[in-house]
Amino acid sequence: MNLDSIIGTFLAESRELLQQMEDALLQIEQSPDDPELINAIFRAAHTIKGSSGLFGYDAIVAFTHVAESVLDRVRAGEVRFDSELIALMLQVGDHLGGLIDWLADGHDLADVSVETRATDAELITCLKRYLEEAPTAATAPQAAESDHTEARTASGETASHHWHLSLRFGADTLRSGMDPTSFLRYMATFGTVAHVEPVLEHLPALDKLDPEACYIGLELAFVSDADQATIDGTFEFVRDESSIEIIPPHSPLTAFASLLQLRQDEGDEQLQRLLRCGSLTEAEWLQLQTPAVVAESDTTSMSTFGSDDAKSDFPTLAAGNTSPASVATTDNAKAAKAGKEAQRGGGDSNLIRVDAAKLDQLINLVGELIIAGANTRMLAQRSGMLEMNESAETLSRLVEEVRDSALTLRMVQIGATFNRFQRVVRDVSKELGKDIVLQVSGGETELDKTVVEKIGDPLTHLVRNAMDHGIEPAEQRLANGKSAQGVVRLNAYHEAGGIVIEVSDDGGGLNPQKIMAKAVQRGLASEGQPLSDKEIFNLIFEPGFSTADQISNLSGRGVGMDVVKRNITALRGTVELDSKLGQGTCVRIRLPLTLAIIDGFLISVGQASYVVPLDMVEECIELPGKGLENQEFLDLRGDVLPFIRLRQLFADDSTPPRRENVVVVRYAGIRAGLVVDQLLGEFQTVIKPLGKVFAQVPALSGFTILGSGAVALILDIPGLLAQVTHNDNRAGLASSQLNQVNHLRSNAQ
Amino acid sequence: MSDITTQDGHRELTLDSALTIYTAADTKLQLVGALQGALELHLNLSQIEEFDCAGLQLLLAVSQEAQRQNIRFSIEGATAAVTDVVQMLGLNGQLPFGGLH
Predict the structure, then answer these.
(1) pLDDT-based confidence at B57, cuts 50/70/90?
(2) Where would I find the beta strands (DSSP E) of A183-293?
(3) B72 in contact with A at a CB cutoff of 8 Å?
């Protein structure tokens, strides 16, 4: 693996982590004290810092470190997540995202723009405020708190002028290429190790000794002007598996009490080491042993020690980046962390990161396999050999399964995309000064990854639109008897082989008269044209249409909705709008599940074959022979069913057979019949796009290759159904379009 | 190559170039073998050019084991690579060094 691909992974992972961090930050607004969420945020920052360090992106490390320190204090319960801190952390995430993007574009971190540097500095200043703030009152009140405080005030702080480091390395430290000596060598670059006490108690007898495990521990007296961050940073890569305790100079005695408690298993020897290091004096030890303090260390758990420390007012302590309380990790916390890591590890190990291009290639190959399989099957049928036929059937069944599982590989849940809108809604509602919440449902609905990627922009536009134009100002809402808080909903569900995504709001809704007037003004409709409300609403997807009286910087320039429609059409989807004046608006996007392969229904007219997506086929009936020659409706069990004669539509001159069939198709609630010659049955269809020349043909959405090698045209059912509802197009396609179709059909024959 | 000479339970083991995490597993086997049935073990480290904590732990464990079995144990010809680590970790006096290189 070369460095570029590793960096690529780093960038991708960092983006993912930032996304997780953002998601958690948005959730934490609702439950500010959820430890899971706080941990998730902390972990994201921590991991980004760690891996940036690996690649030597020091600017990111330095920046993230400050954020991490603040988060650490949040984790220790010293600082609480309020909306201000959430906003700050969101900015931190954005800034990091910016740096990551900068790296992804192949730039050097040293060359970042002046603005980026300014943001960096500004954010650090804001973050530092959380670190300097005296950690008071933030923690939950504890019983007997006052007693303890008194006891500790008596115990005071230590006299030592040096840092005390208590290091117990994880067993795998040596194996992972770290060596305690290398830490000492590194520390010598920014300070002096005044005294070293080796800890050998954990060294087993020779026959039990694992020669590659690390048993040696160290107690160090370290004289340095470096800040805690630098010293902390030394142990970045072993911190997780090791027990690293760092006690700044002049720390309260309790810090050492905690340390002794933590190293309880080493007994008196550890105390002697502390004394030999000079980090603790005999007098101080005696003071520590005064009953009050001892009682405290007996009754209070380690974690209480931590928070108690934090509450005591030791200015030197607060000046450090992190208090020893937060450095000292409790056994409990560690166990919990280990559990979580394990969980995470379990989840990760079931996932493989695959280049999307490889998946595309696989899908393409499966497509070719289907075509080749269809050919084999046809030849087998033609040969009349029973066994051959059977084998071909088995083969095609397997190919079908392979197709399905290959396609599910590309399926992703839309939830992640939806959740991204929490941020959009949050930001936009701040910007607009409206109180709006986003409600998400149907996030588990799956669809093709390529579709998910491409749906983001249109959705953003629709959501912004709903917030800007849909939701009324609070006063108006209250006047209309609604709650002041507006709601924007995102919903997704499966329907007839496709997915439907709804963006709805409970705002003012659309006024059909107003839209009609505007449409007439813009020349999109003519005065007095009889249009249903639905048709009028959908006029806003026409190019150059905007109803906003006032153009805001979010939307209202009239370039939005038609672009939305174009993007969705490009995905073979459709978009429609529903609105009730005063009650709200709902934009419904229908998308095919996948872009590559579908189950088709093969039909023929004359010599040409056509494919209808099977999901849209409701039933097939025989065309009643008499009395329909010039009619375009038939009676389907009492319902009126409009139909289209494909022969007429494509101007096929061949003689119709004696019996014709009707394929009843349904899409988006509209039902119609297609009159065809023959029904050829189910067919796995690999969709091949038509060339640009044929892009204007409305009735076709692509073509496919049959087993015989012939071409079958895929009918664009939504397009055809739209024609059924617009009577004027009934006569058939325009002559230029027909020429194109004829050209295609002659190829197909 | 490491080299061991034996004479009436009096053994001298010379370790070659490296005593690190990479060689620790093999070296341990050699040392355990050398201790077996020995009355005296002299370890010659004059060839050691690389030395780390894994090596150090091994020496400490051998030293303790020798003490437990009443085997006379000494280390000879320790190179700077070895003594640096020993000094850095404050282990002077913990290992029976003799005849410093």
Answers:
(1) very high
(2) 192-199, 217-223, 243-247
(3) no
Residue A319 has pLDDT above 50, yes or no: no
Read off the pLDDT of residues A516-552 as tens digits, 9 standing for 90 and up.
887 787 777 777 777 777 778 877 777 666 555 444 4
Tell me whether A203 touches chain B (CB under 8 Å): yes
Contacts A211 to B, Cβ<8 Å: 21, 24-25, 27-28, 54, 57-58
Touching check for B93 and chain A: CB below 8 Å? no
Measured between CA atoms, how close is A7 to chain B, in angstroms?
29
Local structure of residue A122 (DSSP, 8 states): H
CATH architecture of A412-592: 2-Layer Sandwich (3.30)
Give the one of B25, B61, B68 whose C-beta lies nearest to A212's C-beta: B25
Q: What angle do CA A712, A716, A718 make, to 5 degrees?
A: 160
Element spanning A708, H or E: none
- B14 backbone dihedrals φ, ψ, rounded to 5°: -105, 120
- Say which residue, A294 or A372, is predicted with more confidence: A372
Q: Is A195 on the interface with B (CB under 8 A)?
A: yes
A175: which chain B residues are within 8 Å (Cβ-Cβ)? 21
Write down the pLDDT at residue A82: 80
Full set of structural domains in chain B with CATH:
3-98 (3.30.750.24)
Distance from CA of A166 to the nearest CA of B (A): 13
A497 falls in which pLDDT band (50, 70, 90)? low
Does A137 or A242 have the greater pLDDT score? A242
What number of other Cβ atoms are within 10 A of residue A58's Cβ?
12
CATH no., domain A597-748? 2.30.30.40
Residue A171 contacts by C-beta under 8 Å, 6 or more apart in sequence?
A: A210, A213, A214, A215, A241
Burial tier of A106 (Cβ tally within 10 Å: 0-12, 13-18, 19+): exposed
Q: A513: buried, middle or exposed (CB in 10 Å: 19+, 13-18, 0-12)?
A: exposed
Higher pLDDT, A693 or B48: B48
For B59, the closest chain A residue by CA position comes to: A206
In single-letter form, the type of residue at position A520 comes to V
User: Which tens digits make up the pLDDT trace of A289-308?
Assistant: 765 444 444 443 343 333 34
Residues of B in contact with A214 (CB under 8 A): 53-54, 57
Flag if A181 and B57 touch (Cβ within 8 Å). Answer: no
Rounded to two decimals, the ipTM of the complex is 0.89
Mutation choice for A interface testing from B52, B53, B86 by most A CBs within 10 A: B53
In whole angstroms, what is the distance from residue A748 CA to residue A732 CA? 20
Closest CA to A136 of A127, A128, A144, A145: A145
**Residue B36 structure tokens:** 């077996």
Model confidence pLDDT, tens digit, residues A456-479: 888 888 888 888 878 888 888 888
Tell me the shortest Cα–Cα distance from B7 to chain A, in angstroms: 23
- CATH code of A3-133, in short, is 1.20.120.160
- Asked if A196's CB is within 8 angstroms of B88's CB, the reply is yes
B48 touches chain A (CB under 8 A): no
The string of DSSP codes covering A454-469 is HHHHHHHHHHHHIIII
pLDDT digit string, tens, across residues A65-117:
888 888 888 887 788 888 888 888 888 888 888 888 888 888 887 777 888 88
A211, B58: Cβ pair inside 8 Å?
Answer: yes
Nearest-CB residue to B90 (from A175, A185, A197): A197
Contact of B68 with chain A, judged by CB distance below 8 Å, is answered with yes
The rounded distance, in Å, linking the Cα atoms of A137 and A79 is 9
Average pLDDT of chain A is 77
pLDDT in tens, A117-163: 888 888 888 888 888 754 444 343 443 344 443 344 444 677 778 88
